[in-house]
Each structure stands twice: as C-alpha cells, then as structure tokens.
Amino acid sequence: MAQITLNNLVKTYDDGFTAVKGISLDIADGEFMILVGPSGCGKSTLLRMIVGLEDITSGDLTIDGKRVNEIPPRDRNLSMVFQNYALYPHLTVYENIAFPLRLNRSKIDKEEIDRRVREASDMLDLREHLDRKPANLSGGQRQRVAMGRAIVRQADAFLFDEPLSNLDAKLRGQMRTQIAQLQRRLRTTAVYVTHDQTEAMTLGDRVAVLKKGTLQQVASPRELYEQPVNLFVAGFIGSPSMNFLPAKVQGDKLATPIGLLAVPDKVLKAAGSRDHVILGVRPEFFEDDDFVDDSVRAHGTTFEATPRHTEWLGNEQYAYIDYEPDPSTKQLMDELARDLDQDEMPSTVVVTIDSGSRMRGGKPGKFWLDTRLVHVFDTADGSNLTRDAEAGAELTALAEEERESEISAANG
Amino acid sequence: MNALTGRQKLAWAVVAIVILLYTLWPIFSILTTSFKAPSDIGTGKFWPSTWTGENYQTIFAGSAKDLFLPALRNSIGISLISTVIAVVLATFAAYAIARLDFLGKRLVLNTALAVSIFPIISLTTPLFNLWRQIGLYDTWVGLIIPYLSLTLPIAIYTLAAYFQQIPWDLERAAQVDGATTWQAFTKVIVPLAAPGVFTTAIIAFFIAWNDFVYGISLTSTSVARPVPAALAFFTGASQFEDPTGAISAAAIVVTIPIIILVLLFQRQIVSGLTQGAVKG
C-alpha cells in the first residue's frame, strides 16, 4: 500500500545523455499505472529510478510522503519483476520465492516463511514445481516464479519491467489476465512498463505515455484513445493506428486526399483560420457504405475510393487505400514516424469494414466515415485542436469508479 | 550440432588415440623406469627386467628421504596456500573488474596481463637479492609471493570473464529483494560462480605446483625447497651412477595429487570451461 509521487524527476547519465527530462506523476494507492512508449523513451529508466537501481539526477521521489531519493533499493520495500525474470538459477523455485524473506530471517520465523511461500505458490499454480530449478521450467512458469518472489514480501508496490515480452502471444494474454486479477486482489500499487499498447490498454487504470524522456499524457486508456492530446499519443495508442490525412478547409468541408469530407461544425471551428490541418481518423470510424445502419448514417459522410488491397480477419476486414502524400506535412509526418519507431508514415489509409463486405482490392467502392469522433491536429506542433478536456476527464473519472467497484468485487 | 557419421567418429577416435599416445607415452615411460633397478636403466629396454620398488623405497625411506619428504611437504603447503590466497583475492578483484566502474580499471587489467607475460627468469635475480636482504630467502612466504604473481593474473582474468557472464539483473533483483551488496555477492554471485572458482583454483594450483625456476633460485635448504627443485639435488648411490630411477619415482609421486584433484573436480572443471559456450 503506497502512494508514489514523482516530482520533476530528471536522469542524466555520466556521458551527458538525458534519458528522463523532468517527469511528474502521482500514482495513487492501489492504482495500476502503466508507463508506455516506444523504445528509448525513458520508461525503463524511470522505473529503475523508482525502485532505486538508478540514481536520481534531480527532482524528488516520495513514497507515502517520504522522500526516498537517497534510500537504497533494499530499504524501499518495493518489489520488482524483471524482463528476463532474474531468477536465481542455483536455487529451487521454493527458495527463489523465499529468498526475500530469508534475508531478514531474524524478523520472520521458518513457519511463517513456509506459510507465505505456499500461499504465493498456490496463488500462481506453482505448488507442484516448488522443488524444481528455474532451468527446468517453461517461460510461463519462470514468469510466475518471478511474480511469486515479488508478492511474497508484501511489498508496498509492485514494479514490472516489460514482464511479458519474452512470452509467446497466447501465454502473454493469459499472464496479462493473471496479473490484472492478482493486482486487484492484493490491492497493491503497481507500476508497469511496457511498449505493448495492448498491455497498456488492458491493464492500466491510468496510462502514462512517454516520448523521449518527456511525459505526453497521463489518462485512462479510454481518454487516451478518444481524447489524445497530440499526434504522438493519437498515433501510438490504437492498433491499427490512427490514420493521419493532410486536410484543408474548403467552405464547410475538409479537402483531403481521399476526397471532400463533410465534418461537424466543431471540427471546422477547431481548425479555425489555419490553412492546413491534419485530420486524424481511426480505422474503425470507416465502414463499407452498404453496411451502414440507417440510424447512424446521418452522423457521417461518404466518399469513393479504390482500395489497393483487403485483408479478411474473420470478425472484420481491413482495406488499404493509398493516397498522394502532401509535401506540406511531410516533415511533420517523418518526425512523427521517427518518434513512433517507424521508418516512415505510409501514405495509406487503413479502413476497417464489415467482414461480410464484398469490397476487394482494385475495385472502386463507396465508403462511409463516421465524423463524430474525428480529430484535427495542428500542423506546426501536432497538438490536438479538437480535444475536449472535459469529456476526457469524465472518461478517466469513470475508469476510477470502475476500478473501485472491481477492487471491492475482487475482495468480495 | 549434427550427429557424427560413422567415418567421422572413426576419424575422431584415431586423432584422439594419437594425441593420447603422444602425451601419455613419456609418462608411461617414466612409470616403467621408476620400477627399474639402477643396473637396468642403461639397457635400453622399455620394460624393467625385474620389477622393483627400490626407487620408491629410496625416496620415502632411503637415502633421498631427507631430500624428498620435506620437499613434498613444502610443495603441498606452498601450493595450497598460494592457491587459496590467489582465489580469494582474485574473486574480489574480478568482481570489481566485472561489476564496478572505477578509475584505473584498465590499468589493473593491463598490469595483470603484463605481469603474466613477463619472463620469470628476468625477475629471479632481483628477487633473490631482495629476499636475502629482507629475510624472505628460503622461506615459504618467499615462494608464496612470487607464486601469487604467477597465479593472480590468470585467476583474475578467468574469474572476471566468469563474473561478466552472470546477468546484472540477478544482482539488481537481489538488491530489490532486500539484500545488501555483500549479501547479493555471497548468496547470489559466489554460488553461481562456483564452477569458475573451482576451475581457477585448479589452474592456480597447477602453476604453483609445477614451478621450477623460483623453487630452485629462492631456496637453499629443505626448509622451503619444493619438489621440482629438490629433484635436481637427487644423487645416485655413487658418483658414477645417475639417480634416474629415484627421479622417475618422485616424478610419478608428484603427479598423483594432480590426477586426484582433476578427478575430484572433473565435473566442475568441465562445466566451468563450457559455461560460455552453453548459455542458460
């Protein structure tokens, strides 16, 4: 049980590289906080600063109001799950889990250690593996042993450093559920570093999106998805990611490479007197015009396009529509691509359509676009011009309520 | 790796047998010589015409007893002590080199390398003079110190390579789990490095055990003279007789501890030497 507060934390390495550039974050007691961002954004460094494995160059780190900048990791009472699990290969599973307890043997007697190890191993289905060595375990089992070692100590907070990245996709899904349930049951504050946005969206009460050592936005997954603050967050959250189209105001419509789109007044108002803007549209806002329900048709606009290629996934289809890139936004798009760890922004619109659609690559078709949730971004600094902070805050407040009801449900 | 075909296996077996013969033949020859009577040695025959334990009796109970037994004691004592000191010091030094970033780290490593490639013979005369002046000449300590200069560099190098293979995160995990730096070292790092420590210890023991140059130059009596040096002082029953048989017997006797050591720690050595090859 702990409240962790980061106040303007900075980490500059000896070689002068600043990995973390002044991050402030309040992590509430019992909250599941995700640190997410592309590689090199400083998320792991930040986590190591919290646990005490990296020195803090400047700023304050407080746990339950107590400044802990100079306190060594062993006295911070935090537990950590490492990306490579860091199990002790010479010890059995039992001894691995018991390791943190044995270090202060004077305080905990043998029966208590045994009771706690068995409790933790039951929670993680490790009972029949207690006598085995880590080398003989599968990846998922090793992962669970690392979790066991973290929870056995009744630490103030759990810190996870990309704990699932070494597992295969199926196991990752299972472990994700297990971690979420465990955290709800134990009501322990958790900080979880990942570059996988599925993990970020599913696990986090709140998600902190980082880019090159700076904090972009901290919000509930839904707020990040629906009300991102800038191009970077909009592009990073969501898979397939948001489409960015160069757009120009033309009367009451937006001229884009895929056609003239009628958009709601608030979008036009947000674009204001700007010559160019970037229109951000999530793939699922599109639909094959034949499959649009009449009750929603009025909320959108239609356009004609010829997809280059379609992919059928069972529950839905992706259609890829190429367009001519606009030189005026090329620089911004290239920069965004770099920030997102990609080579370049493809000049392709990814469109999600109904799995029953007969639309195929090379054949022209009529698409419908729901314009209620589209965003426009400034071409100069990438900020979101249509962001509704109030609606966003509401979404995050809603997530907070849900978290509390989940916790009380988990502890029946 | 693919399984070997029958022909490859045969080829490997032939190569192995040739190498074994090449290395073991001289030892076998010494073994047979050690069982020959003095009159039998010059005959040029490989097998002794009559098997005799005479030479062994000479070194353990006969005329060479006063030369050989103290030397054996010296060799065992000096080699063991210098091995223990070398391994303990090298463990700490190697840990520091592998884990810590400190000023002069390169200097320490390069010095260690320089010392180990320096010809021993060029050091013996200055050491001889120095030891006589400060009273270390012909003492155990007087041999242990130069032996450390031989064993420490290689011990530091092998152990540092070993420690570098142990993932950093294990130590970080131990720290987060509540261990002090010392606890992390003794409870996590040292147990994991045990095969490396064994390997290093055996290499260090071999070096000290086999040394001849320091042994003969820095000692004068049986107080500190080790076996390799003592062998040079064996004499025959008369001045016309070579002590070949006794030397052979002594050579066989000093080989035995090495064989026992290797057999005892065989598994540790093998796992120590292959650690880098097989990850995990």
TrEMBL record, chain A:
**Taking every annotated instance into account, which residue ranges of this chain make up the domain ABC transporter?**
4-237
Q: Does the keyword Kinase apply?
A: no
From which organism does this entry originate?
Raineyella antarctica
Single Gene Ontology BP term?
carbohydrate transport
SUPFAM superfamilies with a match to the protein in the record:
MOP-like, P-loop containing nucleoside triphosphate hydrolases
Q: Which domain of life is it from?
A: Bacteria
The Swiss-Prot or TrEMBL record annotates one GO molecular function as: ATP binding
Q: Which Gene3D superfamilies has this protein been placed in?
A: 2.40.50.100, P-loop containing nucleotide triphosphate hydrolases
Is Cell membrane there in the keyword field? yes
Query: Which Pfam families does the record cross-reference, listed alphabetically?
Result: ABC_tran, OB_MalK
Q: What is the name listed in the Swiss-Prot or TrEMBL entry for this protein?
A: Multiple sugar transport system ATP-binding protein
Offer a single GO CC term for the protein: ATP-binding cassette (ABC) transporter complex, substrate-binding subunit-containing
Tell me which UniProt keywords the record has, alphabetically. ATP-binding, Cell membrane, Membrane, Nucleotide-binding, Sugar transport, Translocase, Transport
UniProtKB/TrEMBL annotation, chain B:
Gene3D superfamilies xref list: MetI-like
Q: Which InterPro entries match?
A: BP-dep_ABC_trans_perm, MetI-like, MetI-like_sf
Localization of this protein: Cell membrane
Q: GO CC: one term?
A: plasma membrane
- Keyword Ion transport on entry: no
Signal peptide positions on this chain: none
Topology versus the membrane, per the UniProt entry? Multi-pass membrane protein
Keywords attached to this Swiss-Prot or TrEMBL record, sorted alphabetically, are: Cell membrane, Membrane, Transmembrane, Transmembrane helix, Transport
What's a BP term from Gene Ontology annotated to this protein? transmembrane transport
The ABC transmembrane type-1 domain extends over 72-265
A Pfam family of this chain:
BPD_transp_1
Asked if Cell membrane is a keyword of the record, the answer is yes
Segments spanning the bilayer are 12-31, 76-95, 107-128, 140-163, 184-209, 246-265
Family named by the database record: Belongs to the binding-protein-dependent transport system permease family.
Q: What is the protein's given name?
A: Carbohydrate ABC transporter membrane protein 2, CUT1 family
Which source organism? Raineyella antarctica
Q: What is the lineage of its organism?
A: Bacteria, Bacillati, Actinomycetota, Actinomycetes, Propionibacteriales
